[in-house]
Give the backbone structure.
Amino acid sequence: MLVKNAADRLIETKIKNRSFEPFKGAKKYSYRSKVTDLMTALKKCGLKDGFTLSFHHQLRNGDFVINQTLEAVRELGVKNIHMAQTAMFNVHQPVIDFIKEGVVNRIEGSINGVVGDYISKNPLDFPVILRSHGGRWAAVKTGELHPDIAIIAASSADERGNATGVLGDNAFGPISYSQVDAIHADKVIVVTDTIVDYPCEYQEIQERYVDYVAQVDRIGDPDKIMSGTTKITEDPTKLGIAHKCVDLMDAAGIIKNDMVFQSGAGGISLAAMKFLGEKLEEKNIVAKCATGGLTKLIIDIYESGHVKHLYYSQVFDGYSVNWVKNNLELPADIGHYADPTSKGRTIDGLDTVVLGATEVDTDFNVNVNTHSDGRLLHGIGGHQDTAAGASLCIITCPIFRKKNPVVRENVTTITTPGDVVDAIVTNEGIAINPRRKDLIKKVKGKIDIVSIEELKNMAYDETGGPVKPNRGNEIIGLTKWFDGTLLDVIYRVKE
């Protein structure tokens, strides 16, 4: 059938059994600035009761954006918000009031500190869901966790929404967690305190995904990115544990040219990286790559010429934030780093990783989420991801803290299962997972090893054994393995 279209052409509407819509006329698409205030942006995104709002945590304890957003939500009279932050810190204490007022009633994301402590005793309408970095990325990607509105903090953005975290007065490092939210959320708001000329010089979030740019007075305080858990230990006992980690790596043949390594953010783990750097220098070895979070310590090893590449996903101190501004070398988003549904992850090439623990048990299971009294005080982070990806996963901890055994018969909560944990390094010795017969054979005669049962017995002798936590039957939290399966549950703590 011939039809005259808007260009005054006679065209067929059916060709070779395919139907075609006639041209109806051209529109000239004119660009308009997306810059507005946060409350207006939320309204224009259609914020409603029960919406899921996602956030990233890369300003860590210096973040202002979560609190600012929830204040705007309260002003708009919206209730029952489902939070999907990548992590939460003590700076987010106001979230407790938002929970009490009914503004927030569900949380799917890591919780560190006071908010987790509150929820441990005051359960939400649905248990908090804890995922690893890679597990969360996969959950958003597959639709298991779907943000209605992604709220993305940026230290600089242009008026169209191209944004970064590495430039500007309040730079915090690369925006590594939010690309997946930008792609899959129904609406996207970039929150920034610095509007720059178009185009933004470095673009981690691109205008094609962004609905609005919300300008605020300040997104946060980058001086508070470094917290107590991201400082190298000065404790002699912990420094001894760190030395043992490097001894184990050396005995296992891990310390060699082109090795790939990563450290956790804990004080012992960072000390182990310091001693690893010294060992690389002593042996004149050049590692291929250091992955994960960036610190001055890792940068120093890089600049000394003993590691070829830094493949970082976030930064843990102010020195690193400033370094990144001038050295944009290979930042990797969390999907590239740890997405279990992808065809390749940077962590799958790890030779070794050093991680911390609140508890470990005789089956080599590790707890980082709760303390022994059951209180939910920490998130999973990249613990599961790197433990499963590394050829040698080392867990560090003292055998007891104060009068509480850290090495015990059963952990209070399983964060990382024992089948991906290779060794536990303590102040009283190194225990190697019996599953790793190859590793035991390799280090035999080079370093002393003890059984995990011996370490547990020493811890019990010193402390009198674990005190049973005072917990109820109500489930307040769930830990998921990075493939989305349910790993363990966390119970309410009685007052």
About this structure: DSSP finds 14 helices and 29 strands in the chain. The chain has a mean pLDDT of 95. Residues 267-283 form the longest helix (17 residues).
